[in-house]
Q: What sequence folds into this?
């Protein structure tokens, strides 16, 4: 495994501290580390809440990164309490792809010898049409025009 992945694994492993913080919340059974374009490493742990308002470790790491003013992830690693690699869940894949045009190129480690691009984990992603400026502008127009026309029909012209 490359040295950069070992650094990410170590950063994630240091945050693993499975524990119960209340009768309704457990944290730290899964940990994630992300490497940004600037070379910074941000970590996060899962928050499992009985009300289902918890947060995955990957999204927690992204929140940490965004809080610190960065937004471009180059590499992602997620591990469980035994240090085994985990793939990001569907919700995390979605959020990670929404971070920007190049997010699909983010490297995700699934096993010591298996590194994939994020786009391969969520093929045919619905949001790709919004990622380029031209496509984004066209999609926004298409979405707002019918609504405006329907409003005029329903309420008459102002």
A:
């Amino acid at each position: 495994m490359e040295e950069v992945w070992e650094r990410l694994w170590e950063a994630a492993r240091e945050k693993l501290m499975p524990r119960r913080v209340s009768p309704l919340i457990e944290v730290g059974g899964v940990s994630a580390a992300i490497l940004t374009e600037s070379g910074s490493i941000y970590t996060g742990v899962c928050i499992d809440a009985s009300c289902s308002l918890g947060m995955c470790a990957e999204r927690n790491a992204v929140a940490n990164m965004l809080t610190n003013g960065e937004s471009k992830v180059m590499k992602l690693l997620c591990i469980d309490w035994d240090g085994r690699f985990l793939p990001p869940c569907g919700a995390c894949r979605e959020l990670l792809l929404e971070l920007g045009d190049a997010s699909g190129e983010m490297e995700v480690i699934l096993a010591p010898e298996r590194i994939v691009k994020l786009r391969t984990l969520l093929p045919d992603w619905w949001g790709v049409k919004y990622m380029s400026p031209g496509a984004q502008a066209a999609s926004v127009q298409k979405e707002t025009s019918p609504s405006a026309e329907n409003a005029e029909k329903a309420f008459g012209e102002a």
In short: The chain is about 35% helix and 25% strand.
